[in-house]
Structures are given as structure tokens and as C-alpha cells.
């Protein structure tokens, strides 16, 4: 499977994907990494791994639609089977979402549908929820609203602040995302309208990441 990665930050989830491939847990070719931030660490990780890396800063374009058109035309040029948004922090317009419908996934630091958008860890702490976590979902026009593939749970501790909680969630993200991508790469997982199908069967709930780092 040919994979393109979109990332805005340090690239730790990209590194997790590359580590999974190196360990034989993911059968995929990474054909491009794309960012809205020229200084993003993800681009350096990609270059070090021999993956073409591209930065398209939004300020170089007239508006979001123009930036989306340029970015996703560049993505289309590498002919990906799957686009993985791994810490890509910009909203994606409807036209780009429709162009790659069923072929774009995102990892989000909450147990969706809870805490869509930003500042998820602090919002979870403010609500005093006992369990927080991360979700991988297909990208649709709704913000963090596409069909959820799988989730990883993290217990919230009494002494947590947003930074400590975020670190533990991120560690689980590094297991969750490669596990989801591996199922897609193996042809076992796909979007089915507003749901997810595993081995041809529509899921009635998101898969869960177990302590064995497998999805159940």
C-alpha cells in the first residue's frame, strides 16, 4: 500500500509508522510526507528515511481553498492508496475530503465523539472524566466526525495535568495508529458509508487497542 502522510508537528506518529514497518508489522511504502509548516520535525524524519518531503505554507496562497488545492494536488501526484493525517493541524476543506473519500484517516487525541477540536486533554481534566484516550477515524467533512475505526483508552490520574496526560495518550497513539494502518494495508478494513467494515462485516463499535497492542 502506498501511503502519504500529512503532519504539522514533530512527527512522532510518522516515526511510529516507520518503526512498525521496520519491525515487520506494517506492509507499506511511504511515498510522501506533506506539511503546512516548513520547520516541522516530521519533514526531517521523512528526509532521513528517504521519503520525499514537501512543505506548503498557507501564507503562500490566497485562501484556504487555494492552499488545499495545491497541497492535495501534490499529494495526488504521489498516487497514494491511503492518506494518514498524523498530527496535521489544519482543517481540510470539503473538496479535498471528497476527492479522497474513504482513503484518508486521522488520529485524534480523545475518545470521539467526546472533545472534537483542540485542547482535548485539558477539557477532559476540566470535566473530571475517569478515562481519556485517542481515536483513529476516517476523515469526512465534519470536524473529527468521521466513522471511528479504533480507540485506545488511558486512565486519568488524580495528579494529572494536561502535559502528563498528553504524554500518556501520545504513547498509546504510537501503538494505535500503526495497528489501524496495518489492517487497512492488509485489505481487511475499509470505510462503509458512515461506518467501518472489518473483513466485510460492519462494526457496531470502534475496535479497542488491547494491552497486547492488538485491536479487538
Automatic annotation (TrEMBL):
What are the GO MF terms of this UniProt record? phosphoribosylglycinamide formyltransferase activity
According to the lineage, what is the superkingdom?
A: Bacteria
In chain numbering, the residues marked as site (Raises pKa of active site His) are: 144
Question: Does the record carry Protein biosynthesis as a key word?
Answer: no
Q: Which residues bind N(1)-(5-phospho-beta-D-ribosyl)glycinamide?
A: 11-13
Write out the residues that bind (6R)-10-formyltetrahydrofolate: 64, 89-92, 106
Which segment of the chain is annotated as a signal peptide? Answer: none
**InterPro entries in the record, alphabetically?**
Formyl_transf_N, Formyl_transf_N_sf, GART, GART_AS
Q: What is this protein called?
A: Phosphoribosylglycinamide formyltransferase
Amino acid at each position: 500500500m502506498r501511503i502519504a502522510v500529512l503532519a504539522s508537528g514533530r512527527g512522532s506518529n510518522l516515526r511510529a509508522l516507520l518503526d512498525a514497518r521496520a519491525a515487520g508489522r506494517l506492509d507499506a511504502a511511504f511515498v510522501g510526507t506533506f506539511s503546512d509548516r516548513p520547520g516541522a520535525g516530521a519533514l526531517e524524519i521523512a528526509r532521513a528515511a528517504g521519503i520525499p518531503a514537501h512543505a506548503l505554507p498557507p501564507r503562500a496562497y490566497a485562501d484556504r481553498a487555494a492552499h488545499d488545492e495545491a497541497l492535495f494536488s501534490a499529494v495526488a501526484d504521489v498516487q497514494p492508496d491511503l492518506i494518514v493525517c498524523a498530527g496535521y493541524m489544519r482543517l481540510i476543506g470539503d473538496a479535498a475530503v471528497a476527492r479522497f473519500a474513504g482513503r484518508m484517516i486521522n488520529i485524534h487525541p480523545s475518545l470521539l465523539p467526546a472533545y472534537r477540536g483542540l485542547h482535548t486533554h485539558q477539557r477532559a481534566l476540566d470535566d473530571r472524566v475517569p478515562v481519556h484516550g485517542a481515536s483513529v477515524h476516517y476523515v469526512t467533512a465534519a470536524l473529527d466526525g468521521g466513522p471511528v475505526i479504533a480507540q485506545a483508552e488511558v486512565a486519568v490520574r488524580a495528579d494529572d495535568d494536561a502535559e502528563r496526560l498528553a504524554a500518556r495518550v501520545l504513547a498509546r497513539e504510537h501503538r494505535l495508529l500503526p495497528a489501524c494502518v496495518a489492517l487497512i494495508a492488509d485489505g481487511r478494513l475499509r470505510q462503509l458509508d458512515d461506518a467501518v467494515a472489518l473483513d466485510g462485516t460492519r462494526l457496531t463499535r470502534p475496535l479497542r487497542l488491547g494491552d497486547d497492542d492488538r485491536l479487538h
